[in-house]
Write a structure and sequence with these properties.
The structure holds three protein chains of three kinds. Chain A has a domain of about 120 residues: P-loop containing nucleotide triphosphate hydrolases (Rossmann fold, 3-Layer(aba) Sandwich), CATH 3.40.50.300. Chain A has ten helices and ten strands. In chain A, the strands form two sheets. In chain A, strands 6-7-8-3-9-10 form a six-stranded mixed sheet, with helices on both faces. A four-stranded antiparallel sheet of chain A has the order 2-1-4-5, with helices on one face. Chain B is of the alpha/beta class. Among the domains of chain B are: about 300 residues, Orthogonal Bundle (ABC transporter involved in vitamin B12 uptake, BtuC), CATH 1.10.3470; about 60 residues, no CATH class. Helix content of chain B is about 60%, strand content about 10%. Chain B contains 24 helices and twelve strands. In chain B, strand 3 and strand 4 form a beta hairpin. The longest helix of chain B is centred in the first third of the chain and has 27 residues. Chain C is mainly alpha-helical. Chain C has one domain. A two-stranded antiparallel sheet of chain C has the order 1-2. In chain C, helix 2 crosses helix 3, helix 3 runs antiparallel to helix 8 and helix 10 packs across helix 11. The longest helix of chain C has about 35 residues. Chain C is globular and about 65 Å long. The chains are: A alpha/beta, B alpha/beta, C mainly alpha. Chains in contact: A-B, A-C, B-C. The interface between A and C is medium-sized, with 30 and 19 residues.
């Protein structure tokens, strides 16, 4: 079904001026799909997202979004087109309140007309954000900040949600809770999600398709059940 | 090897002096001779600024303070005690240097923006103090009967001569410094102050030396300026334009070079003087406007100054290199220079107990205790955000712990500065490589080698041994910025080795390497180990780690999750869960 | 002098200090918004204040004769109008010059562009103050009217012994300054624009992910910053004579206030400026006139050396 493809990366290579971080990446995401990109630290996962959201300019390749050439669009405009990026390390606006963070999430909605409704939805998924809406984001715990970062991404009513290592630095129980919530959001709204994770098991469990990134290259891709039994993953992570 | 560089500079300086001298002989117009006197004075100011700010990267907006003190000292000594300039200009040099030291001691607590702002305040405070003291205008008394003694010559040519001598003297000093350990240390500080500390450079000490010399030169320039102009006012010597001019000449001509400030002064001083003489009546601020426009244009079109711009136009594609670019004829793989003797009575080299560090709500290191045995290769692993790099920052002194202790060879490390810790024998590499980008590979490593020697030759030998060990002989003349990922990592390892450590902290040295390069790196690490050096390595690639290390320490959320041999660790359920997730075990 | 006379002097200086301090506080707010959002130290801030002063001066000279309405209030209106005028100048300068060395362009420069930013704004300062000398002349001018020479008397108190005089022009200026600060504070706190500026200051990358054009946010912050300082200049213009070089000494006064309040905090900057005004006026009781500013510089050095995060602000992350 080529016409339902929402986002397509073709032969993307990128770096930060110095050595190349990504080599020849090909990834496609259909509307309504949940895919995962897994790989050990340093594999280039965050660079991949930064290339999609425009912080990093690729040295070659193309990115097509809703049939348009995404690379021709200035970074901050991409959010207005429905691309939401929940960055690594959460990066909430620490000096601003939880509510203001969510309002900024909805920055793309100039009139603010839909915000009330979206806000209700977000706090139904993450009630703690409702309880703490006047608190400064910098004073939240790691797990709460991650929920806020996701909520901020959802506040834009995006077409794609890019999640960069939502489990980073979180206790396993809290990471589990966040993953449960994500799959609930995906199922109830049909939102397309790309998840970048180093926790392989969770990433494979939730996704319908997964890519394995190692040293800037995609070394494997396919459906989670197959990948789960592939020794190369265990080897890449544990060495034995 | 270094003396050729100095000799070449000296030849250029002598030639320049000769040309300037002959030119001055040919000029008879006293106004032009005055300009030819002022140009070297401002060139000295530019060099003075450049010696400190151009090399160290700390921007001073306060050089007027040293200049003004020199000028007032000479003027007031002549008025009050009839002291002649031959005595007072050297005195102005000493006073300038001391004031630089006094300013530096408190102000080097600051970096970046704050430093620049604080420096602005010193001359302005002095300006008002001198006004209040009643020195709005101090005129030097005329002593026509003893022109030589009081430097009050009928013939303006002699002023040019004296100014030129002052400039030549400053050029010689600058050349010597730029080829010395001081110059190298300052460049390292400018390029990456953290890395400089970590490779054992006492950054505070070298900055103080630099500002003292720089301020001494500014004091001398100020003293001579007073003699030439015969009248001193607070605004003329402490004003913002004085500091600005020093900076502008250096930036315009070429920052961090020997000739840049001279070139800047030679172009801009006559230009502004002549335009001022012609148009001052209609356009009183024309000098300031020219300086302002010059500096704006430089920042926008040639951010490092015209010398660098010309150089890059003449040799396109060539990288801008700083430092003396030493070359070493042969790289003897003299490993004995790097080997460490092991302390037979002590099995534990490093002991970490109850170490804690929190950032806001995040506990980066949590009651962490472990020890490192002498001569072992210990791997530190853990998921992203487990606190591994914070641990290294605690060990090498970048970060101070909230609690706990670190003992290295039975000496306490907490609260020591990184350069001290490096000198004691702990070297490190960085997760994101920190090369001194504009220094050659060799110079990068030589900077590290100065920790235990002050001789350039000895440092060169140690550096070449380290470079030979990691196998970077071919790349030794390349600038740090042009290295591939693998070469960068090797260079950092060589730089760490050059400080002759007993313990090396290696942070993700394999990240981003392809399998072949990874194998090469493992071989090098084994070689380092064979020297008797203890290695602690952080790495994500478990694949490589299990081949390499003797023992693992596993961190999660800043706390110790497990430790033991590689075979045990990869079977440990807690480790598997931390790395691959709980569901992995459920499904397995 | 007896004790009551000291008390009178002190109260008189305190009142004058608070009024002057309110204007300093306003200028500090302008400076801090530029630092807070762009992380740029603007050396030319004093020159934008000077532009505000001359804007008020020349408009007063041109329009004053027409006397559209009661000439008494015209200087204050012109001071407020200096804001939008200099705001536009700021936008243009940002687009032509500042933008080349700040924001995302800065990451490619040495030391994140600090070097280039400091020197570039120094260049702008030199051009503006010396160009000002050409355009405006070097003789001191002022915008004064009846209010500048009128005062309200408080007292006599304590048995007719103590009276405090409150200058009317300064009082009006101080009140306007407070209103502008409050208005701008509300803009930053409440509006979509203000939030986007704060988000750009807090985390520029994340702001881009939200769809905020950070370059534009920087441009607006620069415009607001210099515009607000220009209003402060305009208000100060009806207070004392000035000439084109006035910016240099005020740039230190502004930085002293901003650093005192903690770089980047609006409330801190206003309180910092207020404190500097009081310090300046009160120190004049015991110190000679020429040393008033020296006290401020020394105070500034002490603050920056020992408490660079300031007294009213949060700890600055970039220190």
């Amino acid at each position: 079904m080529p016409d339902s493809i929402l986002l397509e990366l073709a032969n993307i290579s990128a770096g930060y001026g110095g050595p190349r971080v990504l080599h020849d990446i090909n990834i496609a995401l259909s509307a309504g799909e949940f895919i995962s990109v897994i790989g050990p630290n340093g594999a280039g996962k965050s660079t991949l997202f930064k290339t999609i959201s425009g912080i990093v300019t690729p040295t070659s390749g193309s990115i097509t979004y809703k049939g348009e050439n995404l690379l021709a669009i200035e970074a901050s405009r991409r959010a207005h087109l429905g691309v939401a990026h929940v960055p690594e390390g959460r990066q909430v606006f620490g000096s601003m309140s939880v509510l203001e963070n969510l309002e900024l999430g909805a920055y793309v909605d100039k009139s603010g007309a839909d915000f009330k409704q979206t806000f209700e939805k977000i706090i139904s998924w993450f009630p703690v954000l409702g309880e703490r809406q006047q608190q400064l984001a910098g004073t939240l715990s790691g797990g709460e900040q991650q929920m806020l970062a996701i909520g901020r991404g959802l506040a834009a009513n995006p077409d794609i949600l890019m999640l960069d290592e939502p489990s980073m630095g979180l206790a396993p129980a809290i990471a589990d809770e966040i993953f449960e919530r994500l799959i609930e959001i995906h199922r109830s709204t049909g939102l397309s999600i790309i998840l970048v994770e180093q926790r392989v098991a969770e990433a494979l469990h939730f996704a319908s398709r997964a890519y394995v990134l190692e040293a800037g290259r995609i070394i494997l891709s396919g459906n989670p059940a197959e990948l789960h039994n592939d020794d190369r993953i265990r080897q890449a992570y544990l060495g034995m | 090897m270094t003396f050729t560089g100095v000799r070449k500079d000296f030849l250029h300086i002598a030639l320049f002096g000769l040309v300037y001298f002959v030119l001055a002989l040919l000029v008879s117009n006293s106004y032009y001779l005055l300009i030819m006197t002022i140009v070297p004075v401002w060139a000295v100011m530019g060099l003075s600024w450049n010696l400190f700010s151009g090399y160290s990267g700390l921007i001073s907006f306060g050089h007027a303070a040293f200049f003004g003190l020199g000028a007032y000292l000479v003027a007031l000594c002549m008025v009050v005690w009839e002291l002649n300039p031959w005595v007072t200009i050297p005195l102005a040099t000493v006073v300038g240097g001391l004031s630089g030291l006094l300013v530096g001691i408190p102000t080097f607590r600051l970096r970046g923006h704050y430093f620049a702002l604080a420096m602005l305040a010193y001359p302005l405070a002095l300006l008002y103090i001198f006004e209040w003291l009643g020195y709005q205008e101090v005129a030097l008394p005329m002593n026509r009967e003893a022109p030589l003694l009081y430097m009050q010559f009928e013939n303006p040519f002699y002023y040019v001569l004296l100014a030129l001598l002052l400039l030549l003297f400053t050029l010689v000093i600058t050349s010597l410094i730029s080829h010395s350990r001081l110059g190298m240390s300052l460049l390292a500080i400018k390029l990456d102050e953290d890395a400089a500390e970590a490779v054992g450079i006492n950054t505070l000490y070298w900055k103080l030396v630099a500002i003292t010399i720089s301020a001494a030169l500014a004091g001398a320039a100020g003293g001579f300026y007073a003699v030439v102009l015969l009248v001193v006012t607070p605004l003329a010597v402490f004003g913002m334009l004085v500091s600005a001019q020093a900076l502008i000449f250096a930036m315009f001509g070429g920052v961090g070079t020997l000739w840049g400030p001279v070139l800047g002064a030679i172009i801009l001083v006559p230009l502004s003087e002549i335009l001022y003489a012609r148009y001052a009546a209609d356009f009183p601020g024309i000098q300031g406007v020219i300086y302002g426009l010059a500096i704006i244009a430089v920042i926008l079109f040639a951010p490092q100054g015209i010398l660098w711009k010309v150089r890059s136009l003449l040799r396109p594609g060539q990288f801008r290199m700083l430092g003396s670019s030493a070359s070493v004829a042969d790289f003897t793989a003299n490993e004995s220079l790097l080997a460490v003797s092991q302390d037979a009575h002590n099995d534990t080299i490093l002991e970490v107990s109850n170490l804690s560090k929190a950032y806001g709500g995040l506990q980066a290191t949590d009651q962490l205790s472990f020890s490192v045995r002498q001569g072992e290769l210990l791997g530190i692993i853990g998921p992203n955000g487990a606190g591994k790099t914070t641990l290294f920052n605690l060990l090498n002194g970048f970060v101070r712990p909230d609690n706990g202790s670190i003992r290295f060879q039975n000496k306490a490390l907490v609260n020591l500065r990184p350069n001290r810790i490096c000198a004691m024998g702990i070297a490190r590499t960085f997760q994101v490589a920190k090369p001194f980008t504009h220094l050659s590979v060799l110079d990068n490593v030589i900077v590290g080698a100065y920790v235990h020697t002050s001789s350039r030759q000895a440092a060169g030998q140690i550096a070449s041994a380290a470079i030979a060990l990691v196998g970077l002989q071919q790349q030794c003349d390349l600038p740090g910025a042009n290295l591939t990922n693998k070469e960068l990592r090797l260079m950092e390892l060589a730089r760490a080795l050059a400080s002759r450590p007993s313990l090396i902290l290696v942070d993700e040295i394999l990240a981003g390497l392809d399998p072949e390069a990874m194998q090469e790196m493992l071989v090098v690490l084994q070689k380092v180990r064979a020297l008797g050096i203890t290695i602690v390595i952080i790495e994500h690639s478990m694949q490589a780690m299990v081949q390499l290390v003797d023992r693992f320490v596993v961190l999660d959320h800043g706390a110790l999750l497990a430790q033991g041999s590689p075979e045990d660790i990869v079977k440990n359920p807690a480790v598997i869960e931390a790395y691959l997730g709980k569901k992995w075990l459920e499904n397995a | 002098m007896d004790a009551l006379q000291y008390l009178e002097n002190f109260l008189q200086s305190l009142v004058a200090g608070l009024l002057m301090g309110a204007m300093y506080g306003l200028m500090c707010v302008g400076l801090t918004i530029i630092f807070g959002v762009m992380r740029v130290i603007n050396f030319a801030q004093g020159e934008f204040m000077m532009l505000g002063m001359y804007f008020a001066y020349f408009c007063f000279a041109w329009f004053g004769s027409y006397a559209f309405f009661d000439g008494l209030w015209l200087p204050f209106l012109l001071a407020l109008l200096a804001g939008p005028a200099v705001f536009l100048v700021g936008l243009v300068l940002h687009r032509l010059l500042i933008n080349a060395v700040t924001g995302r362009q800065a990451s490619q420069l040495e030391a994140q562009g600090h070097y280039a930013q400091l020197v570039l704004t120094l260049g702008i300062a030199l051009v503006l103050q010396n160009g000002g000398l050409f355009l405006f002349g070097s003789s001191p001018v002022s915008v004064s009217n009846e209010l500048s020479y009128s005062a309200w008397e408080w007292g006599p108190m304590i048995g007719d012994r103590v009276s405090v005089f409150v200058n009317q022009a300064q009082t009006v200026s101080a009140i306007l300054a407070v209103f502008v600060v409050i208005g701008f504070g509300l803009l930053m706190a409440r509006t979509r624009l203000g939030k986007s500026l704060r988000a750009s200051a807090d985390n520029p990358d994340a702001a881009i992910y939200m769809g905020i054009n950070v370059d534009r946010a920087h441009r607006l912050a620069f415009g607001f910053g210099v515009g607000i300082t220009a209003i402060g200049g305009g208000l100060l213009a009806s207070n004392a004579p000035f000439q084109p070089y006035i910016g240099t000494e005020y740039v230190i006064i502004m930085y002293a206030g901003v650093v005192l309040g903690g770089l980047g905090s609006i409330r801190g900057a206003f309180l910092g400026g207020l404190s500097i005004g009081v310090l300046q006026q009160v120190s004049a009781i015991i110190l000679p006139n020429q040393l008033q500013n020296t006290v401020i510089f020394i105070c500034f050095l002490i603050i920056i050396l020992f408490r660079p995060q300031g007294f009213f602000g949060k700890k600055d992350r970039t220190a």
